[in-house]
Amino acid sequence: MDQKIDRRIRKTRSALKNAYIELMEQYSEKEITVSMITQFADLNRATFYAHYSNKTEFLEEILYDALEGLKEAIIGPFVQKAKIQTDTLTPTTERIFAYIEQNKKIFHALYVGHNDFKANLEALFYDIFSKDIFIETESTFGEVNYDMFLHYQTNATLGLLLYWIKSKFKYPATYMMKQLTILSNTKINNLRRM
Question: Model confidence at 152, in pLDDT bands (50, 70, 90)?
């Protein structure tokens, strides 16, 4: 009996989220009301309020679910391996881009509609690489400040991910995976005036 209720709850919440994501393709976040979401999902407003106290709580759940899935994609390869080489395409890179591509409508909706999406994405990456995964570094120029390195690396990776989302996934995930690997292993030789 409990599984049936859980399944119905999941189905209803999924319908509401899918409605919101589809509406984000046509309207700005500010234009989308609870009434529009429920009407598009073929549900009534009371059903929405039986699950969420307001639209903000609803959006927070969408964000939480998307980020939890991304976290699982990043950490997943470490279940079977303790160490991953980064000079070639890594399983973590593959899973990040594959997950975002599979959920591209959600990520695009969050990118354009959730004020704190970028900050939450940055916090997720920083948290993972300061608590769950350690990045081994090497520099011929001196000692690497790990905290600074994490901010640098996080923002470089996020810059690429946000570029991809903003471009509405102009390139396939396989191309983006390859580019992240290339960019991460690119040595800058000189700077010259153009």
Answer: very high
Q: What is the pTM of this model?
A: 0.85
Could you tell me which CATH class the domain 1-52 is placed in? Answer: mainly alpha
The two three-digit tokens of residue 9, written as one number: 């709850």
CA distance 178 to 3: 42
pLDDT single digits (tens) 87-104: 655 667 888 999 999 999
**Residue type at position 12:** T
User: Residue 178's Cα: distance from chain center in Å?
Assistant: 18
> Is 69 buried (19+), middle (13-18) or exposed (0-12) by CB count in 10 A?
middle
Asked whether the beta carbons of 13 and 37 are under 8 A apart, the reply is no
Calculate the dihedral angle through the C-alpha atoms of 129, 132, 138, 139, rounding to the nearest 10 degrees: 30
Question: Is residue 109 packed enough to be buried (19+ CB in 10 Å), middle (13-18) or exposed (0-12)?
Answer: buried
Q: How many CB atoms lie within 10 A of CB 52?
A: 18
Cβ-Cβ contacts under 8 Å for 168 (sequence gap 6 or more): 108
Contacts 24+ apart (CB under 8 A), 2-9: 9/51
Q: Where are the domains of the chain?
A: 1-52, 55-184
